[in-house]
Amino acid sequence: MASSDIRECYGETEVEKPMLQHKSSSPEPLSSLLEDTLSDGSLPYFQRLRRATWIELNVLFRLAAPAVVVYLLNNVISMSTQIFCGHLGNLELAAASLGNNGIQMFAYGLLLGMGSAVETLCGQAYGAHKYEMLGIYLQRSTVLLMATGILLTVIYAFCKPILLLLGETESIASAAALFVYGLIPQIFAYAANFPIQKFLQAQSIVFPSAYISAATIVVHLLLSWLVIYKLGWGLVGAALVLSFSWWVIVGAQFVYILVSQRCKHTWQGFSLQAFSGLYEFLKLSVASAVMLCLETWYYQIIVLIAGLLPNAEIALDALSVCMTIVGWVYMIAVGFNAAASVRVSNELGAGHPKSAAFSVVIVTLSSFIIALIFAILALILRHVMSYAFTGGSTVADAVSELSPYLAVSILLNGVQPVLSGVAVGCGWQAFVAYVNVGCYYLIGIPLGCVLGFKFDFGAKGIWSGMIGGTVMQTIILLYVTFRTDWVKEVDKARIRLDQWEDSKESLLTE
């Protein structure tokens, strides 16, 4: 059953659904109302379509909205630290920016990507009602990410010579290193947080994380003000508070897991099974990390390449404004990315091929419509939006010229992250990693350099080439996604879960 034929996907014929067994002690299974609606041949086609759309939108936005809030709030935590440091002086601002957007972003992307392996396995296990395996997957992922954190600590420890090697001045490299040393505890907070976050999202538990992030911002702002300005701890104090705030998020979420009735079947204590099957888990985690890192680094490279242009100051300023806008809108797409992953993995695990295919259509269209609205706003406000960042009319004119490229990038970011979320839900991370390498780094970046430097199109040429890479990647993912045989994906999910599930030896139970 190919999903390209939408009528066949949720049409007249009933599709045999693999029945995945679950323990009698498990909570009530997720409603199969969507699958039943799509399979109800007694209803007219368009009535089925209308009912199914209403059901899916209700489920989707209850997932996507709080996920967007979580990513936005977590972004604000890091941004507020930069703002506090900026009031200490230009050197401190440069150091915090380098630490946050350079060294720290590398660790964030790597660990978040590795944590996405939990998204695939937990989502499918939850849909299959194999609830006890979610806690095992959470622990396995945390073990691997903590081990990766030890390796990242070495990079943090030697960040000063790395920055000097990249051409930074001695003063900036020294100040940035001081800031980065204070971020070392944050590495291990990431290593604990991302598996927990994906563990909760797989169960459609997203509102508690949003509340926790909102409360943490208040704590973070108060502590930052106290430590930086009143106690005079400067850059080190700012970084340590940032690390502490992430540990507050981790602690609060884990306490929620321990005390919440919603997690009583999915978390059954620490287990020795966390240390089994690590190699297979590592392979999926590495594929997830490569996929995500190649995506998150791609648009950052635009700014780096633009710095090599002659008289690059205005181009850099304009691109920085545009990339900041893209970044904030991207947070919305990331929320839909998480929702797509949860919906697809849950439905595949539950043996609902029609629901999985239908969810892909609805989440992609929803994200695209929202992106289209923001793209239109970017064009309407192209002459004034830069004044939120700088008062210079020269930069405003440059941003206005780049606004069509900004609008196209916003539109693409409304689709591409969602398709990546679908890939995570299906377990296609390795395939998407190869696609990203080819489209982004073998086509997009070289094409951008040729247009920008060889043909003297400057920043427009660089951005055009990289948009071309994104368009190609999006077309490939659209083709693969909407040609997918979802019945076979259900079978693959069942086989994957059977391979990963084994006897559980609990060391500590609630």
Automatic annotation (TrEMBL):
What subcellular compartments does it reside in? Membrane
Query: Pfam families, per this entry?
Result: MatE
Gene Ontology terms for molecular function: antiporter activity; xenobiotic transmembrane transporter activity
Which keywords has UniProt assigned to this entry?
Answer: Membrane, Transmembrane, Transmembrane helix, Transport
Question: According to Swiss-Prot or TrEMBL, what is its membrane topology?
Answer: Multi-pass membrane protein
Q: What is its main location?
A: membrane
InterPro entries (UniProt xref): MATE_euk, MATE_fam
Q: Which parts pass through the membrane?
A: 59-83, 103-122, 143-166, 172-193, 205-228, 234-260, 281-308, 314-336, 357-382, 402-424, 431-455, 461-482
- Name this polypeptide is given: Protein DETOXIFICATION
Q: Which GO terms describe its biological process?
A: xenobiotic detoxification by transmembrane export across the plasma membrane
Any GO CC annotation of this UniProt entry: membrane
